[in-house]
Specification:
single chain; 276 residues; mainly alpha; Four Helix Bundle (Hemerythrin (Met), subunit A); 8 helices; disordered C terminus
Length: 276
């Protein structure tokens, strides 16, 4: 009767190393990221069909979903390098490409090359801002963003369009003053993304801690106010946030306090301008 067992390894022969187990992908946080990506993609399609009100809803929905994916990942301990890269790519589509295309279709294409320049500057600044965020994530004060975050910049541009569309300006590309106003808003939002101005990040707000009862009442009142006129209220709120960084910068300058959100970096020796 033959021996069916496997032969033993010879002494002195090292067995080949086991292949590392392939890592899976966490579904829950990436589900929010893909949904945010769809919001930006849907906004682009709606803008191409002249539905700028629905395009605004798509971008703002992407903002809500984008704010949830990271918190969900931290709360469920499902952070991953794949999720970080996926989030950056989703942000580039929803808050970089989508607002640039929407504002170009709405009001910038009537300005010819100037409109094209403004839309591209915004798109390029969004890419630069996301790349800088990814590379400086280890040396930036977590309480502040370095420059205007891309979702807030998208809210300024798309919120401006949503408000005017709600007031009946459906074909803004033929109204010259509206085109130049959109040009100014787009450049402001784009260039503010790549400044070193500190914007509060709200990352130190924890949902695990108990809060006073008045906080819940304030949240309920805020929801009620938003429902009165969603485009106008949301745009006004992000206008305040969009200028808040410069107010903080000016206040710290006046008090002689450091205004940079960069801590200490040994990778880039020539960073004197970031620490002023």
């Amino acid at each position: 009767m033959s021996d069916l067992s496997q032969p033993h390894a010879e002494e002195g022969v090292v067995p080949p190393p086991l292949r590392p187990r392939r890592k899976g992908i966490y579904i829950l946080p990436n589900l929010f990221t893909v949904a945010a990506l769809f919001g930006g993609f849907y906004a682009i399609l709606m803008a191409m069909n002249g539905r700028f009100d629905v395009a605004g809803i798509g971008v703002f929905s992407a903002m809500v979903l984008d704010s949830l994916d990271g918190r969900v990942a931290r709360m469920t301990n499902t952070q991953s390098a794949f999720g970080e890269q996926m989030d950056s790519l989703s942000d580039m589509v929803s808050f970089g490409v989508a607002p640039a295309l929407i504002v170009y279709e709405w009001g910038l294409k009537g300005l010819g090359k100037w409109g094209l320049i403004a839309a591209f500057v915004y798109c390029a600044c969004a890419a630069l801002r996301l790349a800088r965020f990814n590379t400086n994530i280890g040396v930036v004060d977590k309480r502040f963003f370095q420059g205007l975050p891309s979702p807030a910049a998208a809210a300024l541009v798309v919120g401006f369009i949503w408000v005017l569309d709600d007031y009946g300006f459906k074909d803004a590309a033929r109204v010259e003053w509206l085109g130049w106003t959109a040009f100014a808003v787009t450049l402001y939002a784009g260039l503010t993304m790549v400044t070193n101005v500190p914007f509060y990040s709200f990352k130190d707000v924890s949902f695990k801690r108990s809060v006073p009862f008045i906080v819940i009442v304030a949240i309920a009142l805020a929801i009620a106010v938003v429902n009165i006129a969603p485009p106008l209220v949301l745009f006004a709120a992000f206008c305040v946030y969009g200028f808040s960084g410069y107010a903080v910068y000016g206040y710290k300058r006046a008090k002689g306090k450091p205004v940079s959100v960069i801590a200490t970096s040994t990778d880039e020796p020539d960073e004197e301008g970031l620490h002023r």
